[in-house]
């Protein structure tokens, strides 16, 4: 868009200097061109630009114009932000605010690397899970109902609702599982894991899950394992400690060593963007 600006004043009296007409075309795509013509006119018709404070005065005019523009742009935004508030306050209908619930994360295991629930507790080693259920004193074995299947456990007393009835976290070996009652007040169930190299997060699915990275196996029992199993357990324990400290696991360290050896053998290659997968 082009705008022709014209300023013209005739001489009104001999006591006042004449003001010459100024003509310039404003092109919105090149505003600086218009300003250059203004400054050319000023330099020809006045000594304003020769003043030491000319730049400062021009900068002050520019700042004032920018502040005025900023205030003008803020006003519509403030009005729009007020409208929803007024509408909400004038509405007679209640406003429902739904809070997003955070799902509980893994919890720390008990001293036996399991968890203590309201009606029973469980502990574990890599190979077994032991479930302890307190019952009324004087309970006889014939009053106990216990069913141990490959993927399910049910335990209770005759004529009462089951204390435990659900799907196991992982499969067990039913033929190697058994239960007994101790001092007629505590039922103990031994479950032999099918996979004896995995820590269970819970005994029955749906229970709170423990953080298996915080499991602490008893070092005294490592001596009872065969060399291969002991090596695997020690590796798992090392990896868990490394993860807790935010450090690389044994597999990651091994990959880093391989990369370092390869880099030393090939110094002519650029490994600045190399990644370990």
Topology pattern, helix = H, strand = E: EEHHEEEEEEEEHH
**Structural class estimated from helices and strands:** alpha+beta
For the record, the CATH architecture of the domain at 115-192 stands as Sandwich
Q: Tell me about the largest β-sheet.
A: 5 strands, antiparallel
CATH topology of the domain at 115-192: Immunoglobulin-like
- Tell me, what is the CATH class of the domain at 115-192? Mainly Beta
Low-pLDDT windows of residues: 7-15, 78-90
From the alpha carbons, calculate the radius of gyration and give it in angstroms: 42 Å
Strand content: 15-25%
Tell me the distance between the termini.
59 Å
Biased composition (Basic and acidic residues): 69-82
Main location: cytoplasm
GO molecular function, one term: unfolded protein binding
Keywords: Cytoplasm
SSE layout:
Layout lengths: L1 E8 L9 E9 L3 H15 L8 H37 L24 E2 L4 E4 L3 E7 L9 E5 L3 E6 L6 E4 L10 E5 L3 E7 L34 H18 L5 H16 L12
Antiparallel strand pairs: 1-2, 3-4, 4-5, 5-10, 6-7, 7-8, 9-10
Keywords: Cytoplasm
GO molecular function, one term: unfolded protein binding
Subcellular location: Cytoplasmic granule
Give structural notes.
- By secondary structure, the chain is of the alpha+beta class.
- It contains 4 helices and 10 strands.
- Among the domains are: 115-192, Immunoglobulin-like (Sandwich); 227-262, no CATH class.
- The protein has a 5-stranded antiparallel beta sheet, with no helix packed on it.
- Residues 7-15 and 78-90 have low confidence and may be disordered.
- The protein has helices at residues 31-45, 54-90, 227-244, 250-265; strands spanning 2-9, 19-27, 115-116, 121-124, 128-134, 144-148, 152-157, 164-167, 178-182, 186-192.
- Helix content is 31%, strand content 21%.
- The protein is elongated and about 120 Å long.
């Amino acid at each position: 868009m082009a705008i022709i600006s014209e300023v013209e004043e005739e001489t009104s009296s001999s006591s006042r200097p004449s003001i010459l007409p100024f003509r310039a075309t404003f092109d919105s795509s090149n505003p600086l061109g218009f300003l250059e013509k203004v400054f050319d006119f000023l330099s020809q018709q006045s000594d304003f630009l020769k003043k030491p404070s000319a730049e400062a005065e021009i900068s002050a005019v520019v700042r004032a114009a920018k502040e005025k523009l900023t205030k003008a742009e803020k006003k519509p935004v403030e009005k729009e932000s007020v409208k929803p508030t007024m509408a909400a306050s004038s509405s007679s209908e209640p406003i429902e605010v739904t809070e997003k619930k955070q799902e509980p994360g893994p919890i720390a295991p008990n001293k036996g690397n399991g968890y203590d629930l309201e009606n029973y507790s469980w502990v574990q080693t890599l190979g077994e899970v032991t479930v302890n259920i307190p019952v009324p004193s004087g309970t006889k074995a014939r009053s106990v109902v216990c069913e141990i299947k490959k993927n399910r456990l049910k335990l209770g007393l005759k004529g009462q609702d089951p204390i435990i009835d659900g799907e196991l976290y992982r499969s067990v070996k039913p033929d190697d599982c058994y239960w007994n009652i101790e001092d007629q007040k505590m039922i103990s169930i031994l479950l032999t894991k099918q996979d004896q190299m995995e820590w269970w997060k819970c005994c029955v699915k749906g229970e709170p899950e423990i953080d298996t990275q915080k499991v602490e196996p008893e070092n005294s029992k490592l001596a009872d394992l065969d060399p291969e199993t002991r090596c695997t357990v020690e590796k798992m324990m090392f990896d868990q400690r490394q993860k807790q400290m935010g450090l690389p696991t044994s597999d990651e360290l091994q990959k880093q060593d391989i990369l370092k050896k390869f880099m030393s053998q090939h110094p002519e290659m650029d490994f600045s963007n190399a990644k370990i997968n």
